[in-house]
Specification:
alpha+beta, Lipocalin, about 60% helix
């Protein structure tokens, strides 16, 4: 969407009535005759003898002046009426934009109520929401044409996000720039910088430009210093939070975690009784938990299945990783002379970038005649760099020394 050029004042070309043209032509003829005669000798006697001519010229001149004034006055009234009509149209458009914005909010409320109803097809109500949103957004876009400088920046942000959700990314970017153009305060500019950073920062988007995204991310953080009080920390923290979320999405986990730490440090500067602090910390916690689950799911896609020690290993083990509902499980069997000597089962209790730890319980053979049921152990699994089909395992239990072995995926 191109910016609306500055409108230049309309140049009204006024055509005088035929009677005025006739009078002007007659005046020019009389003046030319007068000019010629005045250049000749005896001009004084000429003036005296032609006084009626001078009276006639003055009368014609006065008549033309009043005619032109009447034309000018009519045009001025017409211009004032046009300006008034434009202002009325502008006020009506702004009123309609406000009504459509309210209708859009009500649409979201209806969608939330419908989605919570039992036996409602989610795809149907999503289609309903998308279709009606586009109707409202396109109506708003049509109404704001020509009035871009007189509308709040939040409206352009709203339109940009709705267009972005419909994958109209280039058009959305235009509205984010209009948001920045209309932003007058530091907070409004910060919001516009965040929107532009996100528009440029998604790596599967046609607008993807990491340099531009970085530029606007830094501006959103720098402009936070122009805000006073604790609000500065919340805005700066949220800018870091959004940046971290974007980097998690793009797969830049290390950078994302560093940015999340920066957000947490900003929130820590706020008073404990500040409700915004608690809200933003919960938001950050949910982001990290969500990314951790995504990471686990990615890891366990390769981890799930059956693993065994190689035939040359002194330890004979069979390990099975699997998912039970939302919980990741592990079963371990150790063999002695082809017979099961240990049989443990347990759940995942912790994970890091390299290690996964399971708490196990089950049966363990102490001797040929003695077994212990309800025995417990801790199993730690570590990934081997650049090898998706190999794991190092450490087993610790109460009745023996730590057991170390390597397993391979079947």
């Amino acid at each position: 969407m191109s910016e609306v050029p500055n409108q230049q004042p309309v140049d009204h070309k006024v055509e005088a009535p035929t009677s005025a043209d006739h009078k002007i032509a007659q005046l020019e003829k009389e003046v030319e005759s007068l000019r010629s005669n005045l250049q000749e000798p005896g001009k004084e006697s000429f003036i005296k003898s032609n006084s009626s001519l001078f009276i006639s010229i003055i009368a014609i001149t006065t008549s033309i002046a009043f005619s032109l004034y009447g034309i000018f006055k009519e045009n001025r009234i017409e211009d004032e009426q046009q300006i008034k009509a434009i202002q009325i149209t502008k006020e009506e458009r702004i009123k309609k934009i406000e009504e459509l914005t309210i209708s859009l909010s009500e649409l979201y409320e209806r969608y939330a109520k419908l989605s919570s109803e039992p036996n409602i097809d989610e795809s149907t109500i999503n289609s309903y929401l998308t279709y009606n949103k586009l109707i409202y957004i396109n109506k708003i876009i049509a109404l704001i044409d020509g009035f871009n400088d007189d509308l709040p920046p939040a409206l352009f942000s709203l339109i940009g996000y709705e267009l972005k959700q419909q994958e109209q990314n280039k058009k959305a970017l235009d509205f984010f720039y209009l948001e920045l153009k209309n932003a007058k305060t530091a907070i409004a500019k910060i919001n516009a910088y965040r929107d532009l950073a996100l528009a440029y920062g998604v790596n599967n988007s046609e607008n993807y430009n990491p340099d531009s995204s970085y530029h606007y991310r830094k501006l959103s953080i720098q402009f936070s210093d122009r805000i006073y009080g604790e609000q500065k920390f919340s805005y700066k923290g949220y800018s870091y939070y959004q940046w971290a979320s974007n980097e998690f999405y793009n797969g830049n986990t290390t950078l994302a975690k560093s940015l999340a730490d920066s957000a947490k440090n900003q929130y820590a500067l706020m008073q404990d009784n500040n409700n915004q602090k608690n809200y933003y910390l919960k938001l950050l916690s949910r982001l990290l938990e969500s990314e951790n689950r995504k990471y686990l799911n990615k890891v366990f896609v390769n981890l799930s299945g059956e693993w065994n020690t190689p035939g040359t290993s002194k330890t004979k083990a069979h390990v099975h990783f699997y998912q039970n509902a939302t919980v990741w499980m592990c079963s371990l069997e150790l063999y002695d002379s082809e017979k099961i000597s240990t049989n443990f089962t347990g759940t995942l209790i912790s994970t890091t970038d390299r290690y996964m730890t399971f708490s196990l319980q089950g049966m363990k053979k102490l001797s040929d005649r003695e077994f212990v049921s309800g025995s417990s152990a801790i199993l730690r699994v570590s990934r081997i760099n650049n090898y998706d089909n190999q794991l190092d395992v450490t087993l610790n239990d109460l009745y023996s020394n730590p057991l170390l072995f390597r397993i391979y995926k079947k």
